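Memo to structure team: turn this sequence into structure tokens by end of day. - J.P.
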Amino acid sequence: MKQLLLLIFFLFTLPAVSAQFNVTGAKYDENKYRLIAYSAPRTANTYDKVPERASIKQFAPKPGHQANYGTCTAWSVGYAARTILHARQEKISNPSTISEKAFSPGFIYALTKDPSDVNCSEGIYIWAALDNLQSKGIATKGSFSKDCVDISKAFLFLNESQRFKITGYNR
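Reply from structure team:
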């Protein structure tokens, strides 16, 4: 009987405990997503010279960890995608160098999150992160290493971030 009560206790408390450790960071709004411009239409001829396989792994930084913050969108947009784009453009293929020059998810998150989200648990919209990447750029993780800070801290790095803007994005 004691074991059964203990089992029932764990079954009821496990979801609450595990929810504390599985914060996500992607917000989604179908209407805002539909406003993002499409890329050029694709035709059968578009794919004539596309290789059967391709990889960008050689340009990827070492995987990071968002800890218990809602920063996964910032990690994917800022740390992963922007770092891969930069490494490819600069022809950097040394994994250590790529990881040293990786971009800061915390910077994009601080610029994009709701100011009332002081615990960095609410997540952000991908289009908002990309808008900030386009208008303000991104700081490197080496200079902006924190993942959960106030937006005022991000403003201190705008001179650096301006060098790493994207020209645009589409879906």
